[in-house]
Amino acid sequence: MQVDKSIIAAIEQSVSHEGESNALAKALLSWIDSLNKGETRLENWNETDRRIELILGVLRNDN
Amino acid sequence: MTTKIRILGWKIQGFRCPDHALDFTLSRDETFDISLVQMPNGTGKTTTLELLRMTLSGKAVSYSPDELRAFGSKDTSTGTCEVTLGCDGKLLTIILRIDLNSGIATYKTTWGSGQQNGFRPPLETVKFLNQDFIDYFILDGELAQQLLSNKQAAAQRVIDAMFQADTLKKVAQRIEQYWHGKANDRGATTPQGFTRRKNLVDELEGRLKLRRRELAEFQAKLKKLTTARQEHLDTFESSIRDGKFKDEALTEADVAFQRESLKLQEIISDTFSLSAHPFSLSASFASACMRLKKGLDRVKLPEAAAREFFEELCDESDCICGRPIDISIASIIRSRASQYLGTDDVSLLNSIKTAIDEELPGKDVDALHSDYKFALQRLSEQVAVVQSCEARFNELKVRAGESDPAVKNAIQTIEDLGSQITNVQNCIDAYTDPDDVAAEYNPSEIAKRLEKAKGDLAEVSNTLDLKRKTEMLCRILEQAYDAAAKAITAQLVSESNVNLDKWLPNNDIRIDDIRGHLLLRGGQAAGSVGENLSVAYAFLATLFNRSTNSLPFIVDSPAGSLGLPLRREIGKNVPNMSGQFISFVISTERQGFVDGGLALSGKKIQYLTVFRRRITDLAERAEKFSGSNFTTNGVIVEDEAFFNSFELEQE
């Protein structure tokens, strides 16, 4: 994974602080990793929207 | 996955520096750990470095023609700088070509399958091969100052680029854009908008409940009044019939009115029965139906429908005549089949024929119509008779009322009830008015309005839910960015200071924090030139080692401003900051930095010397070394002994 360990730890901590599951941290890190590797680009709106919707689907509903 | 970039070599010709080609490879995939390029002052070192930055960042296209022409030599019209990189084991070649007459720069990129026009590095290298980042690994002489300058966020920029922590911020911004896009499609997006819509739903629900109750009350009242009136009317009329009011004429008039009314009902019934037969209504219609029936008899409707026959024929491979049916013929038959009667059509025509058959044959169509006309006449006359009887009865009622208070009271009560019924009916009409566009009284209209308001409320409710979720995602990313930046900064500061403790044990200069730029302890703005350079090296060495990516590091005159002890320390440690260290040096820098520093680092070192060919005594000396290479205006010698003995008076 092309994400620094400090960033991984910070995301996991922030996700946990918001009462969300580790699945959210994994989904966010997977996206950030693919952006860092240049596999996906934020300028690709359809792909990005799909990613956001996937991540929204991972959120717990009772928050 | 890390990105590993190595500079395998470059070839420069046609510019102010001597034409030269340098190869830094030990084998296909391996480069020297350290490549020292000794170029005396005036050889075009600055030009070479800037050409490398231009080639590896794509920034030459933003230079003005005059700026580009300034790179040219007197004798050439075209200059090219070709840099070959190894990127994760694959070759990447970028060629910068400058037309020195027109001052136009163009690029060619070779990656993977072939060469492309333009500056097109592969995606995984774009974050490093760009204008913002290039100065951090082809070190600009002013970078040390920039890293310490509070007017620039150079330190933060290089941290963001190396660790890509700023991806978190960019993702948060994109999520916010996503939310705005959705919100624009949906209308109200604020809690106030939600409250407004919720209030409307509550108000409409209350109004609907109230109006339904009011309508039910009016309808009950109407029923009560109607019943009461009917009861009074029945009592009054039975009193008349029983002769209770002692008025024979009134009783007779009532009997006549009842009798004629019954007769009228019978005539109405007969007339309606006749009008149910369309042939009675119009003689010409009846005649036309007869003609239609005769016509249908003559045409002899087919037993089997032709249209279906043709449609089924289309599915066959051959026609009944034996000729093949291809797609185009099938299409023609199918379109023409619609011109023929189908089963449904034949069935309908037969039904019409049967119905005419059952009603008309043997009948005089004129007589049928005359019966109907006569019935209408009778109806009209009987209506007049009933009206006359009613008028007579009402007249006598009034007269009886004038003479008998009991009659008068009964009539008055019935009229009062009638008037109340009218009022209540008027009220009910307001509750059933289909034109109640404001949905004030009509429960049906209010219900429709309520349905829509509930839909709007649900929509804004979903939008707010989405807003809450996207805000939380942005918060997570922003908090993560702050926490990650803090952790990275703390580590970088700590590890950079370990280097400084080693390099500058007696100097009181250390990094305190990174807030865009490097903050020095004790509020110190900067140190001496050597100290500033040491701080910059300490920071970059830590940064390059700490990152998951592995990049080359090219630096110009790394030891020029340093004293001997510091040269040795930096010489021993700076090569560790990256997997490939390329350093431009002049002969006076060798002392301490090369012999006492780099040479003791345990790395594989390549010694290169580049100078102008017009320096004839040196060129003649170079001819004796096997690692020498001569171009039109330059000499390149790859040899440690030549490197270490190279001396020019002016340096």
Question: How does this structure look, described?
Answer:
The complex is a heterodimer of chains A (about 60) and B (about 650). Chain A is an all-alpha fold and about 60 residues long. Chain A has one domain. Helices cover about 65% and strands about 0% of the residues of chain A. Chain A is built from three helices and no strands. Chain A has helices spanning about 5-15, 20-35, 45-60. By secondary structure, chain B is an alpha+beta fold. Chain B folds into two domains: about 5-165 and about 505-645, Rossmann fold; about 215-405, no CATH class. Chain B contains 22 helices and 14 strands. Chain B has helices at about 45-55, 65-70, 125, 135, 145-150, 155-165, 165-185, 190-240, 250-275, 280, 285-300, 305-315, 325-335, 345-360, 365-405, 405-430, 445-505, 530-545, 565-575, 590-595, 615-620, 640-645; strands at about 5-15, 20-25, 35-40, 80-85, 90-100, 105-110, 115, 510-515, 515-520, 550-555, 580-585, 605-610, 630, 635-640. In chain B, helix 8 packs antiparallel against helix 17 (about 445-505) and helix 12 (about 305-315) packs antiparallel against helix 13. The radius of gyration of chain B is 53 Å and the shape is elongated. Chain B starts with a strand and ends in a 6-residue tail after the last helix. The model of chain B has no long low-confidence stretch (mean pLDDT about 85). Classes of the chains: A mainly alpha (about 60), B alpha+beta (about 650). At the A-B interface, helix 1, helix 2 and helix 3 of A face helix 3, helix 7 and helix 17 of B.
Number of helices of chain A: 3
Q: What is the radius of gyration of chain A computed over CA atoms, rounded to a whole number of angstroms?
A: 12 Å
* Order of adjacent strands in the largest pleated sheet of chain B: 2-1-4-5-6-7
Dominant shape of chain B: elongated
Number of strands of chain A: 0
First-to-last CA distance of chain B: 45 Å
Task: Give the averaged pLDDT of chain B, no decimals.
Answer: 86
Strand content of chain A: under 5%
SSE pattern of chain A, N- to C-terminal: HHH
